[in-house]
Amino acid sequence: MSYCFTLSKALRDHTEALREWSTTECRPYARQADIDKRRPDNWREILDTAPIALGRSDREEPDPLPEFEEGEWVSKLAFYEAINYGDVWVHPTLGGGIGHLVVKSMGTPVQIERWYDPIEAGGSTTGFALTEPGFGSDTSQVTTTATRDGDSWVINGSKMYCTGGAFAEYVVVFATVDKTLGAKGITAFVVPRDTPGFVVAKENEDKLGIRSWTTSELFFDDCAVPLENRLGWGPHGAEGAPGNGQGAALGALAFNRPNMSALGIGLAQASIDVATPILKSRRAGFTPQRWSAIEHDLEAMNAALDRGRRLNYLAQGRVDAGAPSRSLSAAAKGYVPETGERIIRRCMELLGPEGSSKELLLEKWYRDSKIIDIFEGSGQVQRIMMGRSLVGRLAG
């Protein structure tokens, strides 16, 4: 891949400061956050030590988030990699989420002004409730229903693995309004946190990795929201053609997939950087041939991550240029997470028994990395999407 992208000095300096801070101040809490399955109790004090603005939602910072010449989405890539280089517990504490991206993708101008703009300005958390116990990647299998009752939509069903769902300002819930229409009957609803019938069944589900992330199980029991809470609708009904909820979900995810890839790059790069000095300290115990093979592995792993970075920058550079490409986002998401997982596993193998021990964080980062491939569309789904972009809908 010949694409080359060089960050400006201003963005490089910013992310280097962020990376150093996340390593020295945040990483020491990584193991305990994994054990406790929650962010550290003193997370606010930890964030207060940051030398640069983080875009926190819990309090106003002295300085605003800086803007860089690369654009918003490319800058986010550098941010995601740098902050997750320390550990994955950190960035969910800042707020955010992706529910508001769906609002931007399929909402009316009034809805965008009401539910998207304030989140972008203030950084509060929004939830994205798509996955259900009966399905994962096949989003056409949504069984949660939304039935119109006068001036309201009444939602019934359950969702799982909703990141931040227990404390989100609102959750965008995907439900079918007509099961006979299949995927075309799926659409999205904004459900505020305090809506009657919106029940947090389990605040944080048990998981293999990212245990410190709050991923919630949610129930909707005759949960009624106004008509205008259906995206694409106003207070009196549809405003133009109602959006395809499944398509809007995938469209919203396309913007964020390279960010998830950047998270994976941060973890994989951290693993290489932890393993390399340990291996060098043991160099005398390796034969020349064995050491040459280890050096080759380290070089190949760094090169693979650099390819992933370029692919991410290519995808998000298109977004900043106003010409987003779902196939490029799919390529980034399809390549990086699986590559990062293999890199972390190889680092563990090179270190021997120590690599999988709890003395190091590699085994934790390996568990964390598994979900990155599944989140927001697995690698298999991304390859199907890329195939369809090349040869049409029959691919996959």
Structure description:
A hairpin with a 2-residue loop joins strand 2 and strand 3. The strands form 3 sheets. This protein has a 4-stranded antiparallel sheet with strand order 2-3-7-6, with no helix packed on it. It contains 11 helices and 9 strands. The chain has 2 domains: 1-94 and 245-396, Butyryl-CoA Dehydrogenase, subunit A, domain 3 (Up-down Bundle), CATH 1.20.140; 125-243, Butyryl-CoA Dehydrogenase, subunit A, domain 2. The two termini are 24 Å apart. It is globular, with a radius of gyration of 22 Å. With 396 residues, the chain is an alpha+beta fold. The chain has helices spanning 9-26, 30-36, 43-48, 72-86, 99-106, 109-122, 245-281, 288-320, 326-351, 362-374, 379-391; strands spanning 126-129, 145-149, 152-163, 170-176, 186-192, 198-202, 215-226, 233-234, 237-238.
